[in-house]
Design a protein that fits this description.
It is built from 22 helices and 14 strands. With 479 residues, the chain is an alpha/beta fold. The protein has three domains: 111 residues, PAS domain (Beta-Lactamase, 2-Layer Sandwich), CATH 3.30.450.20; 174 residues, P-loop containing nucleotide triphosphate hydrolases (Rossmann fold), CATH 3.40.50.300; 137 residues, Helicase, Ruva Protein, domain 3, CATH 1.10.8. A hairpin with a 6-residue loop joins strand 9 and strand 10. It starts with 20 loop residues before the first helix and ends in an 8-residue tail after the last helix.
Amino acid sequence: MKSKIDPPAKQNALQLKDLPPEIWEIIETMFAGFDGAIIIDEQGFIMVFTEQYEKISGFKKKDVIGQHVTKFFPDTRLLEVLQTGRPIIADVWGKEDNIHIVSRIPIIAGGKIIGAAGFNVFRYMKEAKDLSRKYINLNTELAYYKEQVRNLAQAKYSLDAIIGRSAALQEAKARVKKIAQTTSPVLIYGETGTGKELFAHAIHTESHRWDHPFIRMNCAAIPENLLESELFGYEEGAFTGAKRGGKPGRFEMSHRGSLFLDEISELPYAMQPKLLRILQEKEFERVGGTITKTADVRIISSTNVDLRREAGQIRFREDLFYRLNVFQIIVPALRDRMEDIPLLCEHFIEKHNQENGTEIEGVTSTAMKLMMSYSWPGNVRELETLMERACVDSEGSFIDVNNLTRFGGQNYRRQVADHRLFNRPTTLKEGRENGEKQAIQEALAQAGGNKKKAAELLGIHRTSLYNKLHEYGMLDTEE
């Protein structure tokens, strides 16, 4: 590489040394903030050499100023910057323990290179490594939080999470599999507590959109004046309290995925045309915005009221109803699939044993008869709540009638009191069975679950105890 730059073509062109003193003062003040800086003119002669650079290089400022840069730094890349006009950013310079990260930039005036400056980004490689490590850690942290957000926006339940073998439930699940392969809107009907949200999750999970966002919004839970901004987002300054930079709405968040609108019947009438527009045109604007955005979103909605009737009474737009009701899934009420109650009880008992540390093994046959005869106005949600209370209330291994009714609601207790099973006289056979069950439960409790000890307390052989446990449905299925 040349050790000297050819003189400029025009002798009267501006040179670095011609800069006025006030400019030089600014330059020196600016570069003094770095851990080391050097400036050369257009011919490669050193014009600025900071005190920090004296310490780094070992050369004295008085010996260096006015000398050609190659005299002290024969391998310098500052001359390369002079020739090309291109900066060299964050370059490694030095040897062994004296390695630095240096940037070099051209100084240009009137479209001509009149010098070059070099300055330390880091005094030592360790600082660069520390910054790199911090950068990597931040990236790792960011990736973690992105993953957490992604997980929050994913469906949690599959079809396997919907418990039951009844024909009514199997029919609804088969419909989910078929409908999930389309991109059309789905309207889920079902009474409160039947598990409509589980079906919405399952539709998304079974679809080709499964690895994209699944965003949920309860139309009844958001104040009417915030619904539009929640659905479509808003721009900065759209209203008092709007976040800086604006905020995306549920449609933007669920792009390429699914948006579940729970309790769609509660959507205010004034908002319904805006939802209809995005369903038809796949376009929307943020609140306070003028840019039209697009969103590829599958709409899954749910309701526990008859939307057709609501449309007839002008409480729900008829055109929106037909757009949402392309496919329909009806989730059966629990009273219409009573044969699923034993499976559901087993599932909820296992769940609450894990959550509450209880060790309930099952439900007595009498308690199961009672549950099989109850109307379940609160559906599966009511059953789960009942099982949770009963698991905590039971002092034995099995849930009995008392555990079901002790903390039950007024309607449940009234239905139990009115039920023919408890209104008619108890037969001798039922009395004997109930007495034996109670005696067995008490013996097992005293024996800490040890069946051999419990048989001794009851004065019967262990085989006889096992027979009784089997007869009354009190035997663990794994034994």
